[in-house]
User: Fold Transferase hexapeptide (Six repeat-containing protein) from Anaeromicropila populeti.
Amino acid sequence: MEELRNYNLFSMEHTIAARIFEDTTYPWEVIPKIKNFILALGGTLHYDEYELIGENIWVAKSATISKTASITGPAIIGKNADIRHCAFIRGSVIVGNGAVVGNSTELKNTILFDGVQVPHYNYIGDSILGYKSHMGAGSITSNVKSDKSPVTVRFQEYKIETRLKKMGAVLGDHVEVGCNSVLNPGTIIGKNSTIYPLSSVRGYVPECSIYKKIGEVCEKK
Assistant:
């Protein structure tokens, strides 16, 4: 399962949250730790660069926050991030440097690495999005199974138990997700891969792949 390890999915130099990964191997081990990590990290952020704008909400002074955005802590909004009209940040969220959270996008218990774009009508919950990954308009993460059983990660012929009731998706660096796609609970997409629009994705998508539909995944050239 080497492909699923954090260091094969993410470039740790592109997130303020690098330390949360240090004592973990796989991304689903990180998701339950996000809230407490933010609470610990927030108090260490330098007042020259960040300001506390609400209860446990730390925002970089260079970030842009729309007046119509809603942010509930704990949350950290990184340098030069852009939180746009009617964005809804529900807590336990890290928005990386230069990231974009757009119109009517909802985030919950999520880490966005630097440069991530979730700009149009996205739902991202209990998820991790790697450096410069992008979710097309209307694409979402589904974070709870319909039968409410714990989420498993499908990898080759294996089903890996996460012991999490809620887990959305994990996107490696530079992943592109097409418009109106659904990433089912426990989806993991390797670096530099592309998901076709209108896709329903579950399990593991290898890095440097193009996902067209279930059973039709080809290598990027």
Remarks:
- DSSP finds two helices and 25 strands in the chain.
- The chain has one domain: 2-219.
